[in-house]
Design a protein that fits this description.
The chain has 451 residues and is mainly beta. The chain has a domain at 138-447: 6 Propeller (Neuraminidase), CATH 2.120.10.30. The chain is 1% helix and 40% strand. It contains one helix and 39 strands. It has one helix spanning 238-241; strands at 12-14, 24-26, 34-35, 40-41, 48-49, 54-55, 62-63, 68-69, 74-75, 80-81, 86-87, 92-94, 98-99, 104-105, 110-112, 138-144, 155-164, 170-175, 188-190, 200-201, 207-213, 229-235, 245-249, 259-264, 268-273, 277-282, 290-293, 302-305, 308-313, 319-323, 346-352, 363-368, 372-379, 382-389, 395-401, 404-410, 414-420, 431-435, 441-447. The strands form eleven sheets. Strands 3-5-7-9-12-15 form a six-stranded parallel β-sheet, with no helix packed on it. A hairpin with a 5-residue loop joins strand 29 (308-313) and strand 30 (319-323). The protein is globular, with a radius of gyration of 22 Å. The chain starts with 11 loop residues before the first strand and ends with a strand.
Length: 451
Amino acid sequence: MNDAGVVTDGGTGGAGGGASAGGSATAGGSAGGTATAGGSAGGRAGGTATAGGSAGGRAGGTATAGGTATAGGTATAGGTATAGGTVTAGGTATAGGTATAGGTATAGGTVTAGGAATAGGSTGGGVAGGGTSSLGTEFVVLVVGDGSGALSSAAAPVFLQRRSLTSGAVLGTLPLPTSASGANQPFTLSGTSVAEGALTRSPDGRRLALGGYGSAPGTASVSTTATPRVVALVQASSFTSMTVDTSTTLSTSFSGASIRSAINDGTQVWAAGATEGVVFTSAGSTTAPTLVVNAPSNVRGLGFFGGNLWVSTGSGQAGVHRVGLTGIGPPTSLTSVYLGAGTSSPYGFALFEDDASEPGLDLVYVADDSFGLIRGFKSGSIWTADDYWTPMVRHLSCTEDGRDVVCLATTATDLYLLRDVNRFSLGRALSSLATAAPNTAFRGVAFMPVP
C-alpha cells in the first residue's frame, strides 16, 4: 500500500487521491479512473464520471448526469443502486430505477422505471464483494484512568465503556480488576503509552481480548517492570456479571517492555508487543507461551481476517503482515509473510474481500498516526492507497453493514465514526462521537461482542 497522496507508475493525483498505472484522478481515483467537469472517480480500472456524476465502482462503471453506478453497472438520469443493491455484469437501472436493501440484478437483468428489487434480494449485499451485517447497536471503547489525577507512565486502572453506536452515549462501564482474586490477576495499563490497550474481537464475535500488566494502579513506569503480563478475556455477559477473566498470564514474555494487544479464538490466545513480536498460549495458562513471530519483533496490532492472523508494525518493514500461509488456519509456528499495505506508522487495521475477480482479501483499512485512516485496495500482489480520512488515529475496528464498511477509531482524546458508503466514499474528516473525560484517555475500540 502506498502512502495516501502517492502517485505510482506515471499516474497523477490530487487532494490526497492515489492514482496508479497511468490513471488521472481527483479526490481519490486510481488505476485509470477519470473525472471530468466536476465528477469524481472513486473507483478503479476505468471508472468514469462526467458532468458531475460519480463512479464509485470498478471495471468500467459509468455514471452520467448525476447517476451512480457500482461494480460495472450503468445508471442514467439519476438511477441509483444503493445500500448493498448491486447491478452487475451489465445490469441496467434506468429512469430512476432503484435496487435497494440488498436487491440484486445480475447477468444483464434490468430494473426500470422505478422498479424495486427487494424481497428475495441478497440481504447485506450478498454478491461479489458484499458482506453481511454484523453492526449491532453498541460498541466498546477502552478508557485508561479514573479521572482522579493526571495520567503518567505509572500503571492506571482500565475501564471498558459500552456506548451507543448512534449517539456515542455511555450505556455502561465495566471496570477491570485492580487486585488479584483467585486465578484472576490485576489488570492495568501505562497511562501514557498510546500503543497499548488495543481491543480485538474474536473471529466468531463472541469475545474481546486485550493485553496489560498484572500490576496494581500506581506502579511506577509499569512497562519497564518484570511483573507478568496478563490477557483479559471479555464476553457479552461480562457487562452484566461485571466479571472479567484475567487468569491468562504470559510468564516472562514482554518483561521490561510494552504489551500492546491480544486476540482469542475461544481456547487459544495470541499476544503482541515490543521486543518479542507475537507469542501463543492457551486461555487460562500461566506457563511460558510459544514464540510465533520474532520478525518483526516490535508489533502493535493483531487481527484475524480470512482465516489468518495479521499483525501491524511500525518497525523495519512497516505495514500489515500476514502470519502463516493462506488458508492454513490460526498460526502456532514461526512463519511471517509480508503481504500488507505498507504505511509509515500503522496501528489498528481491518481487511475484507471486495472484488470477486481479485482472489482473497483485497480491501484494507489502516489507522496510521502519520496520515489518518487509510483505505487501500489490492490488485494482483500490489496494495495501493485509495483515500484517507483525518485526523491521525491509532486504534481501529471495522465491520461490514451490507456494502458499507463502518469503522470506529480513536485518538487518546477523541472517538470517531466512519461509514464508508459502498466502500468508495471520498476521504474527509471523520465524524466525532465522543471526547475523553479529563485525566482519562481512549485506547482500543471494538464492536460489542455477541452473546
